[in-house]
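Pipeline run #58 for the internal structure catalog. This entry was flagged by the ingest filter as a single-chain record with no existing model, so it goes straight to prediction. Upstream metadata was stripped on purpose; only the residue string is passed forward. Reviewer on rotation: M.T. Logging verbosity set to normal.
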Amino acid sequence: MVYSASFIYAQERTGDGFTYIKKQVLFAGIGFGFLFLTSRINYRKWADWGYVVLGIATFLLVLVMIPGLGIKAGGAQRWIKLGFLSFQPGELAKFAIIFFVARQLERKSDRLNSIVAGMLSHFLVPLPALLLLLAQPDFGTTVMIALSIFALLHLAGVPRKYLLTSLLLIAIAASWLALGSSYRRARLLTFLDPWQDPAGKGFQIIQSFIGLYNGNFWGVGLGNGKEKLFYLPEAHNDFIMAVIGEELGFLGVLGVVAAYVFFIHRGFKIGWNCYKQHRDKFGMLLACGITLALGFQALLNIAVVLGLVPTKGLNLPFISYGGSSLLVDLFAVGVLLSVGRGPVNYQQKKLEKHQV
């Protein structure tokens, strides 16, 4: 789908229609290397490395805000230029925060009835990273991380009265952020009535609707879509689901949604088995946190393409074009597979197998 959605765009922009697909294949290869590596690392080590990973992610988010280092595109400053490559630290931050919160919830599992240990401590340390994400601005990633944290707090057993009170306060803060910024207010108004400015702010979502409508049930055929021909901005990235809907129809969209549902089911099952078999709360929360982060991101992206929520700037995990997102997502899936293997040292398992 990246090849189909990007070929004409890449041909016009770089003179080589294979530019984006070649980069995506390269990053996929490196990403699967990361996946294999992290799947062989005992996931319990991430409990010890939680502060370090979060510190690195926060430091990179600071670098993004420095003129000359951070790259601004589409009204947001979210990338760092590394030679001929660019990296989006927000992708790392979402999992760094989940690693940290999972560890904190395990350490403080006997004090979750306290407002400080049950709620505040899980937000205070990641707060600088969340504020830096908002400053970029990257409201979508911030919302996705917040949803994942609240889901983990619920799974860990934090009292509902704390969760409901906090959700109310965050809803008020989110409303203020959405209405207090002209950038976000414009997005909200476009969401409510995209036809108010069909050639400007509403152009992207209207083209998404047209692509999905043209796809009907069966689609117009792989490679035959027209929206990617400079009608739909970010066709190979944030709005690749609209290209899928146009070329592969409702069946293609249904297949993608079914794949995500299966992924979420397996991720939760890994977490549940970890807790049931090993009584390891950190492993359970880590697996569920990774699954929730990727699941919420997919849900928000699809909801944006369907016009159910305002545009967020979130890509579709594993499918959209984007090197840093693909690398980090595959890295996280490797950690998820490590949880599925269990907390036993792999060398010990190998020795036991040899003895048998």
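catalog note: Residues 161 and 315 are 33 Å apart (CA to CA).
catalog note: Residues 240-278 form the longest helix (39 residues).
status: ready for reviewer M.T.
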